[in-house]
Amino acid sequence: MSDIAVEYSQHRSGLAVTRGNASGRLARIFKRILDVVVAAALLLILAPLLCLIAILVRVSSPGPTIYPRRVLGVAGSEFYAFKFRTMVSDADRVLTADSDLGRRFNENMKLRSDPRVTPVGRFLRRLSFDELPQLFNVLRGEMSLVGPRMIAPEEASRYGAALGRRSSVRPGITGLWQISGRQEVDYDTRIALDLKYIDNWSLWLDLVILLKTIPAVLSTRGAY
User: Most buried of 28, 66, 112, 173, CB within 10 angstroms?
Assistant: First the structure.
């Protein structure tokens, strides 16, 4: 069993005492039902937009339409989160070829004015349209509409002893980080927001985050 899975198991044992009541289990079941219903409805409603975006990505630069990002799920399991490709097809080579660019990326796992992002990709990122394919991940049970941020396996060590808590829930398409400034928030604060969400989770909190996501996306604050 991996270290992440052990920490996850220990954390879930604690949750069984604090959240193991019938109402808590019912709330989690309702959260999953809400995820499936809303994700399916959005995919149907947004189908024309998804098709248009796919065409724009495909014709604007060489490379695949969908970028599968390897991320951590529940109990440290790994899966591929789907996104519309927003970067040039050789983005990894560009990053490794520029040591200063690589250093700045490793500090925050994000880059302001990232030279690898295509013009269409920059537009998609500003409105978070690049993340719409993750609705399929929600249907597959790998993600939730609301949750902590997606993180790559190489980011796990940054959570230290809190990794078990981080791995106890599905990552979300939106969450506290997305409504708190996105890229303007430093990495330590992102971790704190993830853990705050996990420790204070409720259906009401999910609803508040979903409602705040719309104006946060439209404002494009912290999007780059």
Answer: 173
User: Tell me, what amino acid is at 115?
Assistant: P
Q: Which helix (H) or strand (E) holds 7?
A: helix 3-18
In the block, residue with structure tokens 């790559």 = 152
Higher pLDDT, 102 or 56: 56
Instruction: Quote the mean pLDDT of the chain.
Output: 83
pLDDT beyond 50 at 10: no
* Amino acid in position 49: L
Mean of the pLDDT values across residues 104-109?
Answer: 57
Sequence-distant (6+) residues with CB within 8 A of 143 are 73, 81, 134, 137, 150, 170, 171, 172, 173
| Segment 156-168, tens digit of pLDDT | 888 888 888 888 9
Q: pLDDT tens digits, residue range 113-137?
A: 677 788 899 899 888 999 999 999 9
How far apart are alpha carbons 168 and 147 in whole angstroms?
A: 11
Specify the pTM.
0.81
Calculate the alpha carbon distances from 139 to 66, 69, 143, 192 in Å. Answer: 17, 17, 8, 27
CA distance 160 to 145: 25
> What whole-number distance in Å separates Cα of residue 42 and Cα of residue 40?
6
Q: Which residue has the tokens 């390897």?
A: 70
Closest Cα partner for 57 from 87, 21, 15, 29?
87
| Strand ranges (E), 63-221 | 66-72, 78-84, 144-146, 172-174
Q: Give the span between the Cα atoms of 155 and 76, in whole angstroms.
A: 12
Cα-only R_g, the chain: 18
